[in-house]
Amino acid sequence: MTIDFRRGRWLNEPVNAEVTEDSLRITTDAKTDFWRETYYGFTRDTGHFLGIPAADGFTAEIRVQGEFRTLYDQAGLMVRIDETRWVKTGVEFTDGEAFLSTVVTDGRSDWSVSQPFKQVDDFYIRVTLSKGAMRIQASRDRSFWPLLRLASFPVAETYEVGPTACTPERSGLSVHFSEFTIGPATTKDLHDLS
């Protein structure tokens, strides 16, 4: 089902945001981020997130477009239970390149990056969550969906799902989100990348 972005509820609404039925355009505020403790020792819950309620057993997809050029520029999808249990996945700029990135947080954050394709100024991210298992995939064309991560994630009655963007080192990243859908969890085999 296509999601009307106007139904979303903001956590840390950016100063500059344009929300329509089928599109979200934001420009990030300064020093925004989501992270909990691991390695760096700090906790941040200041990133931008527009959440839509979803029950367990869903697949969410969104198109992300932006120019990610500064250390830790990031945008994609977030699944959130509360401030200590959440996942953010999408693009993140690090070590001079844009990678596809996932941070899984259950009390403390972890971080993984991969690069199944190099062009990440315009891509799709897909998250499937069912019965405590989360499958994260990305695509350039919505036909081929390489696996980024298979992770454990807590079962909850309700989740918030939606677009997220952060710029820990600056402000001013412009991101366009569109083609946002949430539907029943896909039952495709893990190795079916369609």
Automatic annotation (TrEMBL):
Q: Fetch the Pfam families from UniProt.
A: DUF1349
Give me the segments passing through the membrane.
none
Indicate the secretion signal residues.
none
Highest taxon above the source species = Bacteria
Q: Which InterPro entries match?
A: ConA-like_dom_sf (IPR013320), DUF1349 (IPR009784), UCP022704 (IPR015987)
Q: What is this protein called?
A: DUF1349 domain-containing protein
Give the species: Agrobacterium cavarae
Organism lineage reads as: Bacteria, Pseudomonadati, Pseudomonadota, Alphaproteobacteria, Hyphomicrobiales
